[in-house]
């Protein structure tokens, strides 16, 4: 199923309505959808590099709005809507494990900035729903999401404008691994700091 979703999302890049679809995919990725908006963003930005930053802005705004929807699902409708969505994607166990360890908005900010904002580990919808479940301040959440998602898409826009097609393979194959390692180091450092503080 995931491969079909991926292929379908890729096919949207060549449509005239691609920009609208980018907004839709970025929105739903942040709350209920499994395929990241990058899958659509990359071919669009490579086909029209002069629009890379515009597409990055569209993806950022839609992603933040989708994040607010994910926050609302966690805050108001976890048992009735969010939990079944997580169960459907096989992410419920990962969510519950994170829920055990994450208790304050600063930890959510770290997850948004380092993992979901950069490497999709864990998927952003898990973080946005969790932010609602722990009743993270909505204003703080929105600012965090703007920084995290904006950093991701604007960085991709900069890479694509500077290096073009040759950087695509690196982005698709290596960027996630590198940022995941950085994320792991920062999370371990954060956990270590928390343990020492107590």
Give a structural overview:
- With 198 residues, the chain is mainly alpha-helical.
- It has one domain.
- It has ten helices and no strands.
- The protein has helices at 2-11, 18-29, 38-47, 52-76, 78-88, 92-101, 105-116, 124-133, 138-163, 166-197.
- Helix 4 packs antiparallel against helix 9 and helix 7 (105-116) packs antiparallel against helix 8.
- The longest helix is centred in the C-terminal third of the chain and has 32 residues, at 166-197.
- The model has no long low-confidence stretch (mean pLDDT 79).
Q: End-to-end distance, in Å?
A: 44 Å
What's the total count of β strands?
0
Low-confidence runs of at least 5 consecutive residues: none
How large a portion of the residues is in β-strands, by DSSP E? under 5%
Question: Helicity, in percent?
Answer: over 70%
Radius of gyration: 16 Å
Structural class call reads mainly alpha
Largest sheet: none
Mean pLDDT: 79
Total number of distinct structural domains:
1
CA-based shape: globular
> Which H/E pattern describes the elements?
HHHHHHHHHH
Discrete helix count: 10
């Amino acid at each position: 199923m995931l491969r079909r979703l991926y292929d379908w999302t890729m096919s949207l890049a060549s449509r005239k309505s691609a920009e609208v679809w980018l907004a839709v995919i970025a929105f739903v990725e942040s709350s209920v959808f499994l395929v990241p908006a990058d899958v659509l963003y990359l071919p669009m930005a490579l086909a029209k590099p002069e629009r890379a930053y515009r597409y990055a802005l569209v993806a950022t705004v839609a992603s933040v709005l989708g994040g607010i929807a994910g926050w609302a699902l966690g805050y108001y409708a976890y048992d009735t809507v969010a939990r079944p969505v997580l169960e459907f994607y096989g992410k419920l166990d990962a969510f519950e494990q994170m829920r055990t360890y994450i208790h304050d908005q600063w930890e959510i900010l770290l997850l948004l900035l380092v993992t979901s904002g950069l490497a999709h580990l864990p998927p952003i919808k898990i973080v946005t729903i969790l932010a609602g479940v722990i009743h993270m301040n909505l204003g703080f959440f929105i600012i965090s999401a703007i920084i995290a998602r904006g950093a991701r898409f604007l960085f991709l826009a900069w890479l694509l404008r500077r290096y073009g097609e040759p950087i695509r393979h690196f982005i698709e194959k290596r960027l996630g691994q590198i940022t995941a390692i950085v994320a792991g180091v920062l999370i371990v450092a954060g956990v270590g700091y928390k343990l020492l503080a107590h």
